[in-house]
Amino acid sequence: MLKLAAQRLVALVPLLFIVSLLTFSITDLLPGNPAELIVGDDATQEQVDLVHERLGLDQPWPQRYWDWLTNALGGDLGTSFFNSVEVTDAVLLRLPVTLSLTLAAVVVALFIGIGAGLIAALRPGGWTDRAATAGATVGQALPNFWLALILAVVFAVKIRWFPATGYTPLTESPGAWLRSITLPAIALGVGAAAILARQTRSAMVGVLQTDYVRAARAQGLSARRVVLKHALKNAMLPVVTVLAFQVTVLLGGAIIVEQVFAVNGLGSLAVTAVRRQDVPLVQGVVIISVIVVVLVQLATDLLYGYLNPKARPS
Amino acid sequence: MTLVSPDSGPGAPPASRPGAGAASDLLGSRQRFARRFFAKRAVIPASLIVLAVLVAGIFAPWLAPYDPLDQSLLDTMQGPSWEHWLGTDDLGRDVLSRLIFGARIVLIAVAQAMTVAVVIGVPIGLFIGYMGGWWDRIVMRVVEAVISVPGIMVVIVIITVLGTGLTKAMIALGLLFSTAFLRLARGLVIAEREELYVRAARVVGAGTGRIVRKQILPNIAAPLIVQFTLTTAAVLLAEAGLSFLGLAVQPPDASWGTMLTTASRFINLHPWLALPPGIAIALVVLAVNLLGDAIRDSIGRGVGETATLRPAARDFSAAGTGADGAPASQRERTGVPSDAALVISSLDVQFPSPRGVPLTVVSDVSLHVRPGETLGLVGESGCGKSVTAMAVLGLVPEPGAATAEAILVGGQDVAAMSRRDLQHIRGTQAAAIFQDPTTSLNPAFRIGDQLSEILRIKRGMTRKASRRRAVELLEMVGIPDAAARARAFPHELSGGMAQRVAIARALSCEPKLLIADEPTTALDVTVQAEVLALLRDLQRELGMGMLFITHDLAVVADICDRAAVMYAGEIVEEAEVTELFANPRHPYTEGLLGAVPQAAHRGTALRAIPGVVPQPGEWPTGCRFAPRCPYSTTQCTAAPVEIDVQHAHQARCVRAAELTLDGAE
Ligand code: SF4
User: Fold this and answer.
1) What is the DSSP track for B469-502?
2) Which of B62, B145, B360, B568 is the most buried (most CB within 10 A)?
3) What ipTM goes with this model?
4) Cβ <8 Å between A210 and B160
């Protein structure tokens, strides 16, 4: 397993490099001089030049990239264009919020998705199958932020089970955290649940037809045992692959759902940054998100290796 | 579904791609497509929804009862009324009119984003797929990097550069989704190029342009349409999300996303506002997704039709068993010993057919296996021999149903057993090994664990004892270095070793009957002989009966004591092996025997009999072999032929007594 982890980690380095390169080029792609953007319309040329120099924009491109990269590797992603906020600090402050929402949504998606897919696969063509498939089709079409609104109206405004807005950190009060995260997590997780359900269903239907399932049944193991142990471990292979991608999608989706519940995560940070063209902040949000995605990727690769012995390096 | 995922469609090219001849049979396939497409129930309502959006978007100024921007501060936040069918918003604007104009935004957004996605993605994909090499590697690396970032982040970066607004946001979306089209086009070109290499001789001299026009474009159209549809749905969701965030359509313009922004601000006061735009988005996305699915299923080689399910095996239902009007003569079997390891009498297996009439695949099969004896069940594939064997374990594949007078395993009637008892019988009284040993072992578990699990559950052994016993079993079937090999995974074993493991598993609970379903067919000839020898030794040692299913008469001669020949769902001849080989009484057996010496290798053994086995449901009324039988007369086809049970050497042939058939040497 360690070997697999090392292998995967090495493979991810070029990816991070390309992402950093692409993200870094935002500054140079901006129409006009970022310095003018910062100082505002009625600034003098001297002021512009001063800022231009402070940003290091007079340096050649490779030099700037190198400086930026070495700083970034040291954990310094620069400061915001518009205030003296350290980007790393700002992003790391918000990250736990978005991550816990994403994680909770993953739990929702796994629970509903695998459950529904499994039930559907046991009787292909039966009513449970048709109901689950229909549910998944609808679930895939619901915009998560709209679902969030509806859930908020029903479960927070009408019946006051959950708070309508806000976020309580886990460290402050686990109970309040759970209550504050439930509705956003469901709103966010339903779409992924629909996709996982479809994937689980088709994988499970396939696995249940395999020789080894038939052989296990012929050997007198119970249907429950064969399905939940022998078949599920194999059926989870394609599901894990999809899950890895869905975590990425959920991380992005969290940005929108956070807005509905007025949760101060990466979402509001990113949206403000984009509207103001606050390049360092945007870069920071993207880079940190990609690092998270890469770690998730690594974790799912290891999970895949656990589920599929053939994927392990011998 | 969540905002912005470039992978929402079939990013990779479909595995089974229409062949290069697709262009020529386009006409036929187009009709087939239309038939399949409109056969889907969801297609018509889905098309109507899409049509409604088109009409609303195009004719918005004429359809909308009010100007979408007209404020009326006296009638703010009203519910539905006669004047305002869907009520008014916080500024007294008519919701219905805004919804209708929102449809126009949808059309613009989709048009812009999809144009960018296709115009950028497809040519680049074609280009790098065609060029290969460094072009391909560099571009794909960048594409992979873009895909690994959450889609919304990519869009945010692009919007940072371009600025906010519908068109700018849609260009950003288009760039994001172009990766999906790029990968699709690239994959198709690469597949096409490989095919061109294969048929290199025919295309020598064909210019690049010609190849693209003649070969690539016809093949790319179908998957492209599917990708296009599914991406459209994703764009719809993404546009709404970005407008909701205030990054695409800007207020006061009416889009479904900005309407939801308004709704979210007044959600406590007037929740109604969230319904019309939300439902509109969900319905349209649903409709487009359904259309995409329907197109995908209708294109190509009938994905919907060929994917017939062979669902999970299920238990016997006790209700479906019991005696039913079998001819009296069939019941009075001769020579069935009371201590038989297996007795099947009058087994029928039926599958429901689309036409309503159940399809019989096994009819009135009766046989028995004595302890220590090996009965060969011989026949071509599709004759029902495997289904017969599965019926013994109560594992006829669903939706098939087995009915029998009795299926006695070690004296207990499997056919009348509860699920629980049946499950208990499996493994302990009767066990099975199958054709492909590499697929009959679970790839995800160590072989030792697969053995010890059975021992723990079926024999109540402790973890430790079961592990020890598993190693002993592996030694018993001749696995070298068994203690270490127990930790191996199935893919680390050769086919022969895997079959030995499967045998060890089957014998772990010392069953009285072993069902061997073509256990050597998938193996090399030398390994075949070893496995047969092992089976013979183990059988002698354990004194179990064996039902040995095969299509290979050479194997029958090698290992079986008696043999029953099956043809088209019924047994046509049964005798001691030496007798059967020397003096066959059924013309089918004679045909099989005649084919043996010519068989260069297994699999071709039955080619010498002209004609093909009739499918279930197409069996002739009289003798089922008659169409292929060289001795067939009118009396053969008049009525169903019965097997002559009184005879020690049974045959199902009206002319069995008069014919003198050739046996094998
Ligand atoms: S019954 Fe007639 S057709 Fe059938 S096998 Fe005998 S001779 Fe041939």
Assistant:
1) HHHHHHHHTT-TTHHHHTT--GGGS-HHHHHHHH
2) B568
3) 0.86
4) no
Residue B591 CB less than 6 A away from ligand 1: no
Contact B141 A138 (CB under 8 A): no
More confident residue, B449 or B333: B449
Enclosing H/E stretch for A72: helix A61-73
Per DSSP, B40 falls in state: S
Q: How far is CA A250 from CA A107, A243, B234, B309, B434, in A?
A: 11, 10, 14, 33, 44
| Nearest residue in chain A measured CA to CA from B158 | A26
Structure tokens of B363? 């009819």
Q: Is the peptide bond before B399 cis (omega within 30 degrees of 0)?
A: yes
Question: What does the block give as tokens for B314?
Answer: 């299920």
Size (chain A), residues: 314
pLDDT higher than 70, residue B581 = yes
pLDDT in tens, B358-407: 888 998 899 999 998 999 999 887 788 889 988 999 888 877 888 888 89
Burial of residue B601, with CB atoms counted within 10 A of its CB: 0-12 exposed, 13-18 middle, 19 or more buried: exposed
Q: In chain A, which residues have their Cβ closer than 8 Å to the Cβ of B153?
A: 252, 270, 285-286, 289-290
Which tokens go with B423? Answer: 């499950």
How far apart CA A153 and CA B620 sit, in angstroms, is 68
B282 chain-A contacts, CB cut-off 8 A: 138, 141-143, 146
Contact status, residue B584 vs residue B573, Cβ threshold 8 Å? yes
Q: A78 vs chain B: nearest CA distance in angstroms?
A: 17
CA B191 to chain centre: 23
Residues B390, B511: Cα–Cα separation, whole Å: 16
Q: Is the CB of B628 under 6 A from ligand 1?
A: no
Under 8 Å between Cβ of B199 and B20: yes
Contact B153 A30 (CB under 8 A): no
Query: Best interface-test mutation with B: which of A137, A212, A258, A260 has the largest number of B CBs within 10 A?
Result: A212
What does the pLDDT look like over B75-123, one tens digit per residue?
777 777 777 777 777 777 888 888 888 888 889 999 999 999 999 998 8
Residues of A in contact with B264 (CB under 8 A): 145, 149, 259-260
Tell me, using a 6 A CB cutoff, whether residue B643 lines ligand 1. no
SS3 (DSSP) at B651: strand
B568 CB near ligand 1 (under 6 Å): no
Cα–Cα nearest to A291, from A259, A248, A239, A236: A248
Ligand 1 and B632: CB distance under 6 A: yes
Q: Which of A25, A217, A310 to mutate to test the interface with B (most CBs of B within 10 A)?
A: A217
Tokens 């120099």 label which residue?
A53
At residue B12's C-alpha, the angle toward residues B7 and B16, to 5°, is 140
Are B259 and B332 in contact, with CB atoms under 8 Å apart?
no
How far is B200 from B212, CA to CA, in rounded Å?
15
Amino acid at B289: N
Ligand 1 atom with minimal separation from the B588 CA: 5
Nearest Cα residue to A243 out of A275, A284, A196, A197: A196
Determine, for residues A141 and B432 on separate chains, whether the beta-carbon distance falls below 8 Å.
Answer: no
CA distance B271 to A154: 9
pLDDT tens across the length of chain A (314 residues): 677 778 777 877 888 888 888 888 887 777 777 777 777 777 777 777 777 777 777 777 788 888 888 888 888 888 887 777 888 888 888 999 999 999 999 999 999 999 999 999 888 888 888 888 888 888 888 998 899 889 988 887 778 788 877 788 878 888 888 888 889 999 999 999 999 998 899 889 888 888 899 899 888 898 889 999 889 888 888 888 888 888 888 988 888 899 888 888 888 888 888 888 888 888 888 888 888 888 888 888 888 888 888 777 65
Report pTM. Answer: 0.80
Could you tell me the pLDDT band of residue B23, with boundaries at 50, 70 and 90? very low
